[in-house]
Amino acid sequence: MQNYNETEAEILQTILDNDLGLDDEEIVMLIKDSLSKRSKKEKEDYTFGAKAADKIAKFAGSWTFIIIFIFCLVTWMIINTKLKNKAFDPYPFILLNLVLSCVAAIQAPLIMMSQNRQEEKDRQRAQEDYIVNLKTEIIIRDIHKHLEQIEKKLDDQKNLD
Q1: What are the Cα distances from residue 49, in Å, to 22, 53, 114, 124?
Q2: How many CA atoms lie within 13 A of 45 on its CB side?
Q3: I want to staple 80 with a disulfide (CB 3.0 to 4.6 A). Which of 27, 53, 86, 87 is the partner?
Q4: Are 35 and 128 in contact, with CB atoms under 8 Å apart?
């Protein structure tokens, strides 16, 4: 994937440097087709684990999760405090601490995997933005060249009259 982006960027840079005179439509086709195909393919490339990690990370970072988690913690503590001698996890709540540690140990790698994928997506978007900016520069140079030609023809026409 990275080699493909570099190759495409090199092609566009060659067009910029050499003024190959490509039509705007040809440039748009070159960029638009390749970018849209890539973004569709990227969505299909994720494994089940990657998709699950993204969903868990999204839920774990939401207010819904925080509220549910606080509710569960408070409920756990109230139940075990009220039951006194029959409590399944009496006051220092050792079992609760163990559960919280396990949740943190499982959540942390999932969130990190999701962040790594997001970072890769951001890098890809930056590369695509660069290519689009190159395309825009090519089009602007082409428009400028056409304007100069029109201006020259107008000057020539004016000199003939």
Answers
A1: 44, 6, 10, 21
A2: 10
A3: 87
A4: yes
